[in-house]
Amino acid sequence: MKVSIWWIRRDLRLSDQPVLDSALRAVGETGQILPVFILDPPLLNSPYLGEKRLAFLLGGLRALDADLRRRGSRLTVRHGPPGETLARLAWEIESAGLELAGIFAEADHSPYARQRDERVARDLPFQPVGSPAVLPPGAVLKPDGTPYTIYTPFNRAWKVRLSQDSHSSIPAPTHINTLDWVTSLSIPAELHLPSTVPFPPGEEEAQRRLNYFLESGIRTYQVHRDRMDLDGTSCLSPYLRFGMLSPRQVVYTALAAIESAPDENAGRGVETWLNELIWRDFYIHVLHHFPGVRSRNFRSKEIYWQNDPGDFDAWREGYTGYPVVDAAMRQLCQSGWMHNRARMLSASFLTKDLLVDWRWGERWFMQHLVDGDPAANNGGWQWSAGTGTDAAPYFRIFNPVTQGLKFDPHGTYIRRWVPELRHVPETYLHAPWKMPIEVQRAAQCKIGTDYPAPLVDHAWARERALDFFGKV
Predict the structure, then answer these.
(1) If I label 434, which of 52, 195, 244, 356 is the partner at 20 to 30 A Cα–Cα?
(2) Catalytic option among 92, 271, 276, 399
């Protein structure tokens, strides 16, 4: 009898699951599948690990185990170095007189993941399948065979390449034969998502959210996506991060929605959402082809940041004196998520207004984001800092007051996350330091006591940043 090991990493689902499909094909109808998740010490001890993200992952494993058990299978959990752990499992299988057909896993593209997989492949029958990207790195290249480093031409080439693919989906199997004697650790139970994190883990919830977005928000996405005070985005990123939702399914769903759009405006809304999904693929490709971006600027120039620890502490705790920035940072720490517009604003403020190294902010985000992804997070931070591939020009410096007025016009977002400003009149909400003292008393918000004065004057900080980056 043949056995396939399905090594699960960041693809916690059963529907449209090419890795599981490959593992099933390798053993035939009479074979067995061993779904395995390995608690990898270097990842569990990483300074980039976020407690909320780990809790979301563990919740996703519990949900996947339940889905497997409904199909006659179960999840095997082990702890230890992946190579040694898989070798031990292979030995257990072969010692029982069974044939190991292969170890199947979704390809991954971070520097650590690639080194790990290369080590495993040297000693074991490891077979990578697919990618967390819709189109894997190497599938979208310039005519001369080199990788794209600018998003717009990548987008055009990506769409041409996707049009050549079949849009068929792989249905979830109704039954999975699994070895029932292999020992397993319990999924760690000490970590659970706090109630402030609005993302129940699991494939079922991911599918529910996708359907809800298709029915209620996708056609107005272009209009509402930048409004921090509205529920205008899909909020699917945590589920895509851990493969609880197939990225191929999401993209094909977007294409179908474009085809069925009732009018041009609705079609443009879906097209805008599709373009955002392509950014996700773009950053995965960049990380694959240029792994050095994880620790250094994509552009070669080194920048000598000012890196004031006090400024960084005020930023990360949400006490900069700029309400929209503080709301964003408090949303991050409490909910494990942040609106994309807020991510750009807070990153711009740290790197441009405060001249703090983007790597400080990148790590802080990874320590708190439920959807924290090495490729997307790195790409977004380098974009904001002006150091990346498709970087914002150094003279693009977001004004936190005007951005707040534009994308949180009534202060709904600010009032939710910065409660000390709840009674501040709308006239002063985005620049509360301008309140006369009698208004401060009436609003129960004394600047410098109940809420901080601005950490820096933005107009002055902008001129400083222009001079600073201009020299670089």
Answers:
(1) 356
(2) 276
Active site residue 340: yes
Task: Measure CA 352 to chain center.
Answer: 23
Residues 6+ apart with CB under 8 A from 397: 348, 352, 353, 462, 465, 466
pLDDT > 90? residue 4: yes
Mean pLDDT of the chain: 96
Contact call for residues 365 and 377 (beta carbons, < 8 A): yes
Q: Which of 98, 86, 94 is nearest to 124 (CA)?
A: 86
Return d(Cα 75, Cα 41) in angstroms, integer.
Answer: 19
Domains assigned to the chain: 2-130 (3.40.50.620), 132-166+203-289 (1.25.40.80), 309-471 (1.10.579.10)
Category of 318 on φ-ψ map: left (φ > 0), alpha (ψ -120 to 50) or beta: left
Q: Is 358 a catalytic residue?
A: yes
Q: How many CB atoms lie within 10 A of CB 54?
A: 16
Q: Of 92, 271, 275, 305, which residue is the catalytic one?
A: 305
313 burial (CB, 10 Å; 0-12 / 13-18 / 19+) is exposed
For residue 33, give both structure tokens.
């599948």
305 annotated active-site: yes
Does the predicted model carry a pTM greater than 0.85? yes
- pLDDT at 343 (0 to 100): 98
Distance CA 247, CA 13 (A): 11
Q: Give the type of residue at 23.
A: A
Beta bridge partners, 36, equal 7, 76
Output the six-digit token pair for 431.
């620049």
